[in-house]
Amino acid sequence: MPDVRSQIPGVDQLLLAPVFRRLLDRYPRARVVGHLRDVMDDTRLRLGRGEELDDLAAPIRYAREVERALRREEIPSLRQVINATGVVLHTNLGRAPLAWEAVEAMRRVALGYSNLEYDLAEGRRGSRYTHCVSLLAELTGAEDALVVNNAAAGLVLALNTLAQDRGVAVSRGELIEIGGGFRIPEILSRSGAQLREVGTTNKTRLADYLEAAEQGDVDVLLKVHRSNFRMTGFTEEVEVATLAGLAAERRVHLVYDLGTGLLVDPESLGLPHEPRVSEGIALGAHVVVVSGDKLLGGPQAGIVVGRTELIERMRRNPLCRALRVDKATIAALEATLRLYRDPERAIREIPVLRAIAATPQEVEARVRALVERLRERGVTVDEARGVSVVGGGTYPGAELPTWTLRVAPVEGTSAEALARAMRMGDPAVVGRVEGDRLVLDLRTVDPMDETPLLRRLREALAIG
Ligand SMILES: *Cc1c(COP(=O)(O)O)cnc(C)c1O
Questions:
Q1: Phi, psi of 183 (to 5 degrees)
Q2: What does each of the 464 residues of the chain score in pLDDT, given as a tens digit?
Q3: Rounded to 5 degrees, what are φ and ψ at 257?
Q4: H or E segment at 30?
Q5: How many angstroms does the Cα of residue 184 sit away from the middle of ligand 1?
Q6: ∠194-196-199 over CA atoms, to 5°?
Q7: Alpha carbon distance 27, 38 (integer Å)
Q8: Ligand 1 binding pocket mutation candidate from 191, 224, 294, 323 (most atoms within 8 A of CB)
């Protein structure tokens, strides 16, 4: 009996077939041929194992697999995700989605040239560090500002500039891990500063800082905002204003690692009190460090605001060059900051603020409309109250009442399998499994993404 493998056509012969000629119109020859050889090897291997395969002479059976492989290669590693987790600032899902204005500004500078480091009035070299300064000064009340890659970088730069080989006094209650292994004591030592721990885990008093300051080598008092956890019960800490008094008296600098980057009144978002950047400055911190992509709702960036003399020293620190931001970041940050000139507009147009400020009634109306559309297609789904959170290591314990869709998997499959199918398509949808349902919180889903979300549900439930 002749070897069935002899029925497999040759590469050159296959490439002449119309199905392959169409592929060659769309993809480079080398990639088509490479995948075709893999498919043919695989076919021979399977035949060798005794598998029975049909249509061995038909080009279409090879072309289909080659096309699938070519398509798979087109899927980018970093791709769009619809966040249906209800965690507004989801660090794993890229934290803050940007406002349209910010995206537009990025597009403009990304596609062409810009005056990133060029002084247009003078016709000569300028500085990339001038761009957001006046807006940040206006919005925070600080004298000067510097933008770097993220708040962690801002803190390293501040400590390296102000306290290299010198002592930094920090409360033992603030020696925290901020996230992803970012720990204050390690950041301090990598910055070249020496940690002087003061007080205890639950109680730190002014006298503790005073004692450290009197040791003589302390140049900086560091206040770290406990943004990601709450401490309750028998506790005591020293307020920023009190530390500012001590810093003035001892002629040392007060650095405030605030993190969250809130620029609007939290009450306007329905949130409890949380210090704003402007409060840090008003209370007398010499330098305040915040993140650009937490409650500020901008691009990943570290924003350092404070006294001109100190910010100027940071700008001149050679380390600043290693932490510098890209033009697209500056463009997005400037456009986001501009929206804050009208706080009501900021809440309407900055996605993070809009998602937090959405009322449960607004979310409920959207959920009910989707439930109705899904039921028309025979999907077993209902709506239920739920709780969203701000996330991103901010507002621990704060709960945002919300509404969720609870989707049942098709019979014979599981909610886990449905959740996975939702994650694997395009756009990916990330929700969570509760019992035998896939739970989708619409607070964090942009209304523009509802149609793709429905399409993905239809695909994952295979209801066409
Ligand atoms: C989140 C946070 C940081 C780190 O901010 P990144 O921009 O992610 O580097 C630093 N300090 C505090 C208090 C924070 O909450």
A1: -110, 135
A2: 567 888 899 999 999 999 999 999 999 999 999 999 999 999 999 999 999 988 899 999 999 999 999 998 988 999 999 999 999 999 999 999 999 999 999 999 999 999 999 999 999 999 999 999 999 999 999 999 999 999 999 999 999 999 999 999 999 999 988 877 789 999 999 999 999 999 999 999 999 999 998 888 999 999 999 877 777 888 889 999 999 999 999 999 999 999 999 999 999 999 999 999 999 999 999 999 999 999 999 999 999 999 999 999 999 999 999 999 999 999 999 999 999 999 999 999 999 999 999 999 999 999 999 999 999 999 999 999 999 999 988 888 889 999 999 999 999 999 999 999 999 999 999 999 999 999 999 999 999 999 999 999 999 998 75
A3: -85, 100
A4: helix 29-48
A5: 10
A6: 160
A7: 16
A8: 294
Whole-angstrom distance, CA of residue 412 vs CA of residue 426: 24
* CA–CA separation, 165 and 175 (whole Å): 19
| Cα 229 to averaged position of ligand 1 atoms, centre (Å) | 13
Nearest to 269 by CA among 125, 429, 87, 395: 395
Q: Residue 346 and residue 336: Cα distance in Å, rounded?
A: 8
* Ligand 1 center from residue 291 Cα (angstroms): 6
Report how far residue 229's alpha carbon sits from residue 217's, in angstroms, rounded to the nearest whole number. Answer: 31
